[in-house]
Amino acid sequence: MKPGLPTRHENVDIVVIRENTVGEYSGLEYEVVPVVFESVKVITKFCSERIAKYPFEYAYLNDRRKVTSVHKVNIMKLADGLFLESFRRVATKYPTIEYNEIILDNCCMQLVSKPEQFDIMVTPNLYGNHVPNTSAGIAGGTGVMPGGNVGAEHAVFEQGASAGNVGKEKMVEHKTVNPVALLLSSAMMLRHLQFPSFSDRLENAVKNVILEGKYLTKDLRGDFTTQEAVDAVIANIE
Amino acid sequence: MATQLLRRRVTQILSHGSVNPSSPISVTRHFSSAAETIRATLFPGDGIGPEIAESVKQVFKTAEVPIEWEEHYVGDKVDPRTQSFLTWESLESVRRNRVGLKGPMATPIGKGHRSLNLTLRKELNLYANVRPCYSLPGYKTRYDDVNLITIRENTEGEYSGLEHQVVRGVVESLKIITRQASLRVAEYAFHYAKTHGRERVSAIHKANIMQKTDGLFLKCCREVAEKYPEITYEEVVIDNCCMMLVKNPALFDVLVMPNLYGDIISDLCAGLIGGLGLTPSCNIGEGGIALAEAVHGSAPDIAGKNMANPTALLLSSISMLRHLNLHDKADRIQDAILNTIAEGKYRTADLGGTSTTTDFTKAICDHL
What residue stretch is flagged as signal peptide (chain B) (predicted)? Predict the structure, then answer.
């Protein structure tokens, strides 16, 4: 959460990690008969273990205290059960980091009432779409939330949550696009490349602009264009 | 009796061109004479259930609601006819009365029986879960302009319970979407919007990714939307919806969704207005059955201590009254509850007050 932004919640500081390869987005859909469709959600032990290691490593390196996995194992006993099993196994290897589990519907409810309780959250693919968007909403919107996609050999950084504004010509025309999310994502990229001082300078510049509250784009209830917001950030870089 | 049947048939013919047997609206109950009492099944439930059920009975008695309760409890032995702790007689009672109210039930841990909620859902074919979510005046949360209804498809989707292990370490879970179930819930959503004076229905989906399954759901919603030209219809992607809800919930009116999204969104909306302790809920079944329920837990730690908050069960019972077309009684009781909470003098512990269940109930009765 950025200090200075008018939001309903304070003290929001959440990192959401979403499994990005399997789950509900496997793209496997079938028409059983013309009026019945099936969509297959796949969870594998390999992918669950792979994604389980990331948040704990992240927590360890970034001084975070807690990892929460989000699931719906009471309903999807085998699929989410496999997901959770991998987590529990990995959690035992990081005894200094607190680990807990929360059911998806309760999670969303807690996010809108007591978001302070969450630190790092991990989800399978589909829930990883809802949770970051909800978190982005309570922390100021998708215009300010950074994100990154990490693989074994490559990493691609982009906005954390998109929420349907992708490809909107009008926003480009009216120059109301908020550059903050992508700027912060690029700061994440710099950190990933191990340039922490550059990353810090960029992040601080953005934070100062928002704290000042002057050069904000339309989604943050400001009146300034994309270019003006970027110029403000540049002016703030030390 | 004969005039009732005739009136029902006439309404059927007038309201729809063709009488579709699977449509929920074709069987309308007529509670024409005020003197006639309606029988309703009551499941007080476990934990704080009996106490809050008592509150409802008291409020209804004071408001002179023409309802006669048929109480049923969950047994302590598995009934082989239903494979759960709910007896066949209890289910028959709901089927017969067509309307019921349920308190929180805790499914006993163990194997060899179905979960109580699952039993009710499957046996009574409860296909839509309806939760009106509105900010309670006087109970401040971070959101005070919430006024929406979530309607969730309750029988299929991601919760079909069909999972299997393909090979060791690879599990598949099936999401099923059928035309029949999607049409059914869409019909109910638009019918609800029309009869409750709502202007907009939003279908929530992820059809950009799940093109065939959510695509079918949307197709069905569009079909139904054409029959209700006076109601605005829109489609919102689930991620966008989550974001809009937490930023500006006033943007939404009636939301209709498949099972998983409905689960998330309805609980998210409950969080916006103050939690499950204040949220009413009503399950609609085939043939016009309505089972209103409190969706919070049985709270065994405060059971029997006269501390429980009966608001959720009371608001759910109001949903039940509205389903029965007893609108002026429903309005009176709803106003009494909202005024009591707004006044702030009598509030139970979970709302930050010190009143007991009985005091809170008495305050509501006084406001009637």
Answer: none
pLDDT tens-digit profile of B82-140?
777 888 888 899 999 999 999 998 766 666 666 787 788 888 889 999 999 989 887 88
Domain stop point among B273, B302, B325 = B273
Tens digits of residue pLDDT in B38-52: 999 999 988 899 999
DSSP class of residue B20? -
Q: Both B178 and B268 in a single domain? A: yes
Residues with Cβ < 8 Å from A99, sequence gap 6 or more? A66, A67, A68, A69, A87, A88, A91
Find all residues with CB under 8 Å of B256, minimum gap 6, and list them.
B151, B152, B153, B185, B186, B189, B201, B202, B203, B204, B221
For A172, residues 6+ apart whose C-beta sits below 8 A from its C-beta are none
DSSP assigned state of B250: G
Same domain as A192, residue A130 = no
Does residue A68 fall inside a structural domain? yes
Asked if A65 and A105 sit in the same domain, the reply is yes
| Residues of chain A with confidence (pLDDT) below 50 | 1
Residue B236: pLDDT band by 50, 70, 90 thresholds?
Answer: very high
Is the ipTM, as predicted for this complex, more than 0.90? no
Q: Looking at chain A, which residue has its C-alpha nearest residue B237? A: A164
Signed CA dihedral, A209, A213, A219, A225: sign only: negative
Q: Is residue B101 part of a domain?
A: yes
Interchain CB distance below 8 Å, A42 and B211: no
Tell me if A99 sits within 8 A of A67, measured CB to CB: yes
- Asked whether residue B137 is assigned to any structural domain, the reply reads no
Task: Calculate the average pLDDT of chain A.
Answer: 84
Residues B71 and B191 in one domain: no
User: Which CATH number do you get for residue B180?
Assistant: 3.40.718.10
User: Domain limits at B217?
Assistant: 142-273
**pLDDT, tens digit (0-9, with 9 covering 90-100), for B128-160:** 999 999 898 878 888 888 999 999 999 888 877
Q: What is the distance between the alpha carbons of residues B169 and A87, in angstroms, rounded to a whole number?
A: 14
Tally of domains in chain B:
2
pLDDT of residue B20: 40
The reply to whether A126 and A218 lie within a common domain is: no
Instruction: Using CB atoms, pick whichever of A37, A113, A136 lies closest to residue B212.
Output: A37
B285 and B343 together in one domain: yes
For residue B209, which residues of chain A lie inside 8 Å, CB to CB? 24-25, 27
- CB of B290 within 8 A of CB of B26? no
A36: nearest CB among B178, B242, B268 = B178
Residue B26 inside a domain? The answer is no
Assess whether B258 and B286 both reside in one domain.
no
Residue of B nearest to A85 (CA): B169
